Amino acid sequence: MADEVIAMLEDGSSLNLGIGIPTLVAERIPPSKNIWIHSENGVLGVSGRPTKESVSPTLINAGKETISVKRGASYFDSATSFGMIRGGHIDVCILGGMQVDAEGSLANWMIPGKKVTGMGGAMDLVHGAKQIIVMLTHFSKNGDVKLLHRCTLPLTGKNVVHKIVTDLGIFAPTGNSFCVEKLAEGVARDDLGLDEGLLV
After folding, report:
1. Range of the domain at 144
2. Which residues pair with 135 in a beta bridge?
3. pLDDT tens string 158-172
């Protein structure tokens, strides 16, 4: 999934990665691809996980994971960081998700009745970044498909998602359905768990 997302990124892009599966992207970006990863806690130039020799407890991303940075990285306060996001200066944001619907709405922060830690910066990112890509497993642990006609969980953003990358394929919401742009090797449309009317 991470490699499919990386193939969509243009050289020189600024990129913000959500917590969880999206952080795999930072670990797999080849050195030949000039991507500037932004973390909303105030870093531009994240370059994946550090080695044991280079790890620093004070150098972390927004998910409180230790990170490494590339040459030319910069650091700034939280107000500047969110000014970059809200001002439309982040090219692409990759977020995880619990549900995405055919309208391009995203639910990724809360399951009613379970512990809520808050929406965090996602509420700003879904409206501030120029392109939103959601990266998620196609099915939940319970076997429920995560691509729906309409989300049933509380929304992070309405009509904000441009592309969806799952372990089964790449999809684009059209408003009433999902356009199947690519299927993973060995996967057929029948494996997607979606009504045929929800696919184009």
Report:
1. 2-198
2. 165
3. 999 999 999 999 999
* Angle at the Cα of 114 from the Cα atoms of 135 and 147, rounded to 5 degrees: 30
State the Cα–Cα distance between residues 140 and 146, nearest whole angstrom.
Answer: 7
Q: Which of 21, 35, 23, 14 is nearest to 166 (CA)?
A: 21
12-33 confidence digits (pLDDT tens): 999 999 988 998 999 899 988 9
Give Cα separations from 137 to 13, 66, 96, 144, 197 (angstroms).
25, 24, 9, 11, 21
- Residue 165 sits at φ, ψ, to 5 deg, of -120, 115
Q: Can you tell me the distance from the alpha carbon of 156 to that of 97, in angstroms, rounded to the nearest whole number? A: 9
> Which DSSP state fits 125?
H
Looking at the 3D structure of the chain, how many domains does it have?
1
Whole-prediction pTM:
0.93
User: What CATH number corresponds to the domain at position 106?
Assistant: 3.40.1080.10
The secondary structure of the chain in percent helix, strand, coil, rounded to multiples of 5, reads 20, 30, 55
Which string of b and e fits 135-148 if b means at least 16 CB within 10 Å? bbebbeeeeebbbb
Tokens at 177, concatenated? 């359905």
Q: Where are the beta strands (DSSP E) in the chain?
A: 14-17, 36-39, 43-46, 69-75, 92-95, 99-101, 106-107, 131-135, 147-148, 163-165, 169-173, 178-183
All residues at 6 or more sequence positions from 184 whose CB lies less than 8 Å from its CB, including other chains: 167, 168, 169
Residues recognised as catalytic: 40
